[in-house]
Specification:
OB fold (Dihydrolipoamide Acetyltransferase, E2P), three-stranded antiparallel beta sheet
């Protein structure tokens, strides 16, 4: 993850700037109550990129990150550093 910031009009949304191996991608995700933006910068995540773009609180989103519901809330699924950026998930 290149950068991450809170979406100004929302308490739940974060705007993530991702290196997807194809020039970059912006994704908005409802994980602000579980993660501070600085916790996510530099991490590798799983991305679903073949979705129709949408606008959330006025911010364009071009995909969705993978996360799991746990007893403690929501947990983003991080990828091991040995997996190259842009690798396809099977």
């Amino acid at each position: 993850m290149i950068s991450c910031e809170k979406v100004k009009k929302s308490k739940k949304l974060l705007c993530l700037q991702l290196d997807d191996g194809m020039g970059g991608r912006q994704v908005v995700s409802g994980i602000a109550q579980y993660y501070a933006p600085e916790e996510l910068v530099g991490k590798k995540i799983q991305l679903i990129a073949n979705l129709k773009p949408c606008k959330l609180c006025g911010v364009d989103s071009f995909g969705m990150i993978c996360a799991a519901d746990t007893k403690d809330g929501c947990q983003v699924i991080f990828v091991d550093d040995s997996v190259p950026v842009g690798a396809k998930i099977r």
